[in-house]
Amino acid sequence: MSWLRTIGLRLALSLGLGFSLWAFVSVSENPEELVTFEEQPVEMRNLSPDLVVVDQNGLPDPPSPEVNVTLTIERVQRNSLRSVDIAPFVDLRSLGAGDHSVPVQIERVNNRLDFAVAPNGVRPATVPVRIEERVTSTVPISVEIRGQVPFSFEVGAPEVRVNDTFTTTVEVSGR
Fold first, then answer.
1. CA-angle at 161, arms to 149 and 173, nearest 5°
2. Sign of the torsion angle spanned by Cα atoms 108, 111, 113, 118
3. What are the pLDDT digits (tens) for 124-166?
């Protein structure tokens, strides 16, 4: 029975040494490097259609916030990695109207590359988002003619057309 234990210990030791040697060679031949992409725009995703993202002044569609992203990647793949291979985004799915601090997530666009986000690799890790309810209303259109037309021109009846269809109302949305 002791010969079985000896063989088992030798097998475990040889497997452990083999794995250690493989890990050492892999890391020394192809070490991981840190790559930073600065000022990456953050995409707003999954916002409910009845909501709108606004800036601090309440104006809709503010410019995208930007983040710096640091990745770890093996040296052999480093030259293939570009900033378009990642997509920073925030998920607004469960958020309602108000001010929020939303964590930034990184989506892998290029699945052929093997990289990971470094610890604390997204700066800032959260972005502020202000969301307001979208209000839609239908209002009538009225055309008012001001001034005089030049000599030899004639004023006709004013009309508003959208895609060659006469219309008297317009739908307006905002907050």
1. 110
2. positive
3. 999 999 999 988 888 898 888 888 888 888 888 888 888 888 8
The structural domains of the chain, with segments of one domain joined by +, span 1-29, 31-133, 136-174
pLDDT digits (tens, 9 = 90+) for 44-86: 999 998 899 998 888 888 899 999 999 998 888 888 889 899 9
CA 94 to chain centroid: 16
Mean pLDDT, the chain, integer = 87
SS3 annotation, 22-40 = HHHHHHHHCCEEEEEEEEE
Please give the C-alpha separations between residue 14 and each of 1, 9, 56, 156, in angstroms, as whole numbers. 20, 8, 63, 96
Instruction: Please say whether the beta carbons of 91 and 129 come within 8 A.
Output: no
- Rounded Cα–Cα distance for residues 90 and 124 (Å): 12
Give the chain's length: 175
40: β partners: 67
Q: What's the CATH code, domain 31-133?
A: 2.170.120.30
pTM here is 0.66
Can you tell me whether residue 8 is helix, strand or coil?
helix
Structure tokens at 66: 């930007």
Per-residue pLDDT, averaged over 108-112, amounts to 86
